[in-house]
């Protein structure tokens, strides 16, 4: 453990890092120049290079993981160790600009979470932009709130509030999606501000197929956890409508009600009832935790 002081801060700037020795020192120096009164906390997620040494040399507090657990796990460790009342989460790879931290903090008195939403001018790849657009649309439907950047890792939260959702956060890169949907489901306010990011320094650790599939599965899981009826109801309605159409077709062409129509009707009712029960269970969970 290298976080030794007990001094309290107004703001902690949290940087999860894994093998970022080439940029972590510069990033910390830029933050220190702009915000010398804030705590800079680096969670070294089991790096095999000199990331921890570079971070400590630049003046950051460092909490090391004994081995690589995941980006989400680093965020959770950081939230547990943070000395500040507010935490700004940002990438350590040079994508996020320290100058934008002040823009997040400007909204802290009115919103529970402030998120930097990447604009089209950001240096991002087309396939990731498409994937993020799909994630944003699906999450916006589930939460009934316009989500502008579901997977952005640049965000401001109050530590005491964020800790309530630690048990929900995965150990992977999907933690921003989970945290955003958890806040919205619990009635917390979220604010998006436009930011322009740069291309990361070094090779990305996110794999399109592996992590893209994982993101979608986690978003679906979180959707069914927080707002299950928004997922189950369309499926039930689709099956019921298909059953009606198939029954009409077989009635006019064969003059009978088929087993397939009965199966579709029964399945739609079962899924509807599962969604109804899941919605009640979800509400009971929040009644107990609030």
TrEMBL record:
TM stretches of this protein: 231-249, 261-278
Which InterPro entries does the entry link to?
A: Glyco_trans_2-like, Glycosyltransferase_2, Nucleotide-diphossugar_trans
Q: Say which domain of life the source belongs to.
A: Bacteria
CDD domains in alphabetical order: DPM_DPG-synthase_like (cd04179)
Keyword GTP-binding appears in the UniProt entry: no
UniProt keywords (A-Z) are: Membrane, Transferase, Transmembrane, Transmembrane helix
- Domain named Glycosyltransferase 2-like: residues: 12-164
Q: Mind telling me which Gene3D superfamilies this protein's record contains?
A: Spore Coat Polysaccharide Biosynthesis Protein SpsA, Chain A (3.90.550.10)
One MF annotation (Gene Ontology) recorded for this entry: transferase activity
Name of the protein described by the UniProt record: Glycosyltransferase family 2 protein
Which species expresses this protein natively?
A: Desulfobulbus oligotrophicus
**Taxonomic classification:** Bacteria, Pseudomonadati, Thermodesulfobacteriota, Desulfobulbia, Desulfobulbales
């Amino acid at each position: 453990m290298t976080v030794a002081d007990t001094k309290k801060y107004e703001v902690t700037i949290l940087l999860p890092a894994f093998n970022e020795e080439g940029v972590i020192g510069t990033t910390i120096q830029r933050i220190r120049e702009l915000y010398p009164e804030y705590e800079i906390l680096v969670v070294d997620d089991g790096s095999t290079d000199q990331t921890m040494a570079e971070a400590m040399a630049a003046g950051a507090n460092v909490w090391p993981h004994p081995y690589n657990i995941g980006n989400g796990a680093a965020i959770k460790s950081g939230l547990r160790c943070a000395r500040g009342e507010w935490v700004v989460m940002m990438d350590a790879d040079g994508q996020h600009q320290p100058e934008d931290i002040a823009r997040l903090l400007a909204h802290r008195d009115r919103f529970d979470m402030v998120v930097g939403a990447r604009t089209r001018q950001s240096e991002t790849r087309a396939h990731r932009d498409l994937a993020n657009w799909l994630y944003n649309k699906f999450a916006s439907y589930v939460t009934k709130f316009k989500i502008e950047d579901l997977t952005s890792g640049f965000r401001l939260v109050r530590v005491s509030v964020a800790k309530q959702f630690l048990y929900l956060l995965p150990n992977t890169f999907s933690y921003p999606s989970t945290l955003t949907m958890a806040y919205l489901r619990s009635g917390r306010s979220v604010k998006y501000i436009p930011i322009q990011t740069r291309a990361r320094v070094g090779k990305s650790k996110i794999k399109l197929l592996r992590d893209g599939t994982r993101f979608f599965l986690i978003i679906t899981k979180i959707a069914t956890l927080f707002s299950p009826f928004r997922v189950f109801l369309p499926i039930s309605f689709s099956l019921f409508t298909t059953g009606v159409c198939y029954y009409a077709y077989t009635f006019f062409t064969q003059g009978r009600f088929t087993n397939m129509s009965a199966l579709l009707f029964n399945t739609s009712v079962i899924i509807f009832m599962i969604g109804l029960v899941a919605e009640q269970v979800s509400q009971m969970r929040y009644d107990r935790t609030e």
